[in-house]
Amino acid sequence: MATTTLPTGPIEPTEPAPSGTPAPGGTRFGGLRRITTAVREARGVPRFMLWSGGIISALFVITAVFAPLIAPYNFDTYRDGGKNFPKQGAPDGDHWFGTTVQNLDVLSRTVYGARTALEVMVLAVVFSLVIGVVLGLLSGYFGGWLDRILVLVMDALFAFPYLLLAIVASFVFSGISGGAIVTAALSITVVYIPQYYRVVRASALSAREATFVEAARAMGAKPSVVIRKYLFGNVIQSVPVITTMNAADGIGTLAGLGFLGLGIQPTDAAEWGYDLERAIDDVNAGMWWTCLYPGLAMVVAILGFTLLGEGLNDVLNPTMRRRRIRKVLLPAHTRRRTVTAPELPDASEGEAVK
Questions:
Q1: Is the pLDDT of residue 91 over 70?
Q2: Is the sign of the CA dihedral 211, 215, 216, 218 positive or negative?
Q3: Which residues pair with residue 338 across a beta bridge?
Q4: In 3-state terms, what secondary structure has residue 329?
Q5: What integer is the mean pLDDT of 321-331?
Q6: H or E element that contains 320
Q7: Treating both helix axes as pointing N-terminal to C-terminal, what angle do 106-142 and 239-259 enclose, rounded to 10 degrees?
Q8: Position 351 pLDDT exceeds 60
Q9: Which of 160, 179, 196, 224 is the most buried (most CB within 10 A)?
Q10: What does the pLDDT average to over 216-233?
Q11: Is the pLDDT at 22 greater than 50, yes or no?
Q12: Do the beta carbons of residue 315 and residue 43 sit within 8 Å?
């Protein structure tokens, strides 16, 4: 007897997915799904850096957004109730972080300095991201004389020390309308455009030779369609890591400009670099509070974005990422029914019948 084992449960037919619905594992949100999966599977030191940097960065952003609610006074307030604040007063119950030589509250200046740093950082990153990615895509896809000119310009900018280039750019953009925040953001933007350009151009050069890009061109797709639908999604994956690292570096660059007196003026907004420059004489006189808190806030903010960027790099970089090894579970034993089929006659018996 020949036996065949069949499942006992009924077999339900599968319904076809409606038109327009992406199939499971489709490519519509493939990049986002890969990022979230890699972050969820992070373990060890990369996980610690990622989450600790994310928490510190989130606290920095919350402090900057809700600065008017957190700070006891405005950044340029020097008197309250018809009475001036004490000059270079030590920390006490009225002024937790003390006061400066200009009768300003250090706590309020520190909190509003976070808002200034966030505004400049966001504008600089957005400007450099848009310009650098667009130029990198065009240069990598089209090549030719456009690529040679852009590479020459970007290499010339990249050869300058970043702080010196920011100083030169601050003089160039000093007359542009928009306020001190926009001027400082544009000065830092010039520093970061070559970084985005080089990374995106290198990715576009390799992606434009892929089979799916060649197939799209063979089907008559326009260059704008190829760049938007096929190249952009493949070259943008390494940009989040650069963005977080540039955010940390942008805070330090803004502080450097303010320390040199080329950044935001004290009447326009609170800025940590300017406060540190004004606190040099106070430190020599033994008044440590005017420089401790702005400097500590700047260090913590830079540390948060640096840890976030390094964690993202370790998690998203396929050469450094370590996947979690999961235990394989075998399916549970299920009850089966046995169907007995009649045996076929032997060849000798069949010949006897004939």
A1: yes
A2: positive
A3: 5
A4: coil
A5: 62
A6: none
A7: 130
A8: no
A9: 196
A10: 79
A11: no
A12: no
Average pLDDT score over residue span 324-347: 63
- Report the alpha-carbon distance of residue 287 to residue 87 in Å, rounded: 11
Q: What backbone phi and psi angles, to 5 degrees, belong to 307?
A: -65, -40
Q: Cα–Cα distances in Å, from 293 out to 84, 108, 144, 241? A: 22, 11, 52, 28
Enumerate residues 6+ apart whose C-beta is below 8 A from 26.
Answer: none
Whether the predicted pLDDT of 59 surpasses 90: yes
* Residue 338 DSSP label: E
The mean pLDDT value for 324-350 works out to: 62
Q: What is the DSSP string of 222-235?
A: -HHHHIIIIIHHHH
User: What's the pLDDT band for 283 if we cut at 50, 70, 90?
Assistant: confident
Structure-model confidence comparison of residues 185 and 30, the more confident one: 185
Cβ(196)–Cβ(129) under 8 Å?
yes
For 25-42, give one letter per residue: b (16+ CB within 10 A) or e. Answer: eeeeeeeeeebeebbeeb
* Interacting residues of 163 by C-beta distance below 8 A, sequence separation 6+: 253, 256, 257
Nearest to 275 by CA among 56, 109, 51: 109
Shortest CA distance to 324 belongs to which of 40, 59, 6? Answer: 40
Give the angle subtended at the CA of 57 by the CAs of 252 and 193, to the nearest 5°: 50
Q: C-alpha distances in angstroms, 270 versus 176, 264, 334?
A: 20, 8, 70
Residue 339 phi/psi, 5° resolution? Answer: -105, 125
Q: In percent, how much of the chain has pLDDT > 90? A: 15
Distance between CA 150 and CA 156 in Å, rounded?
Answer: 10
Supply the pLDDT for residue 21: 41
Measured distance CA(252)–CA(298) in Å, rounded: 8
Say which residues have a Cβ less than 8 Å from residue 13's Cβ, sequence separation at least 6: none
